[in-house]
Amino acid sequence: MNSFTVLVVDDEKEIREAIDIYLKNEGMTVIQAQDGIEAIEKLNEQDVHLMILDVMMPRLDGLATTMKIREQKNIPILMLSAKSEDTDKILGLQIGADDYVTKPFQPLELIARVKSLLRRYVTLGTYEHHEKLIEINGLSLNQTAKEVAIHGEPVKLTKIEYKIVELLMTNAGRVFSIDEIYERVWNEPCINAENTVAVHIRKIREKIEIDPKNPRYVKVVWGIGYKIEK
Length: 230
Hints:
Layout: E1 5-9, H1 13-25, E2 29-33, H2 36-45, E3 50-54, H3 62-70, E4 77-81, H4 86-94, E5 99-102, H5 107-123, E6 133-136, E7 139-142, E8 147-150, E9 153-155, H6 159-170, E10 176-177, H7 178-186, H8 194-208, E11 218-221, E12 225-228
Helix pairs in contact: 2-3, 6-7, 6-8, 7-8
């Protein structure tokens, strides 16, 4: 099996370190996090092929973490918990986990389950190759990798800029008002946001348009808002 990166999330350092050893013995790269908030931060910073995620953790537990991750990513999640009741396993699987191991676990069983998930999601292509791609006249959006490119050349966008492009491209042809864009991208009520949105649109155009003053992609509909044409 190729070298894959696994994110191990558990508030107990001893468990993280033990799993770290098992996975590294299999040639895998391991990243550690002590709770769900730290895990999400590391997911946004690095490419991860699989997560091993404890259920009971401070700040953000495994169930809430799984739900947040599933809003954006489809990486395999293997849940760990000291709970053995079927209802807990079913809940974890229903909200997006792919497998479930009860503590205390056998190292060989854990490794076997990790390898099985990696084969299913990576080697067989459902993780790496079935990406959500949208392309409009040379402008491409990869929702899996959260990347935008122009004729194959990557464009460096900020998180907010990417969200605006994603909103417009996934709804190509639809005109969004400034208020709609602000509320859906910033996820808060819109109050005098016209200048804020306009500044971000200008920066996006500078990055993706050949002639920002005569845009090909992000177009204004005067008096209404913005759109990306199909």
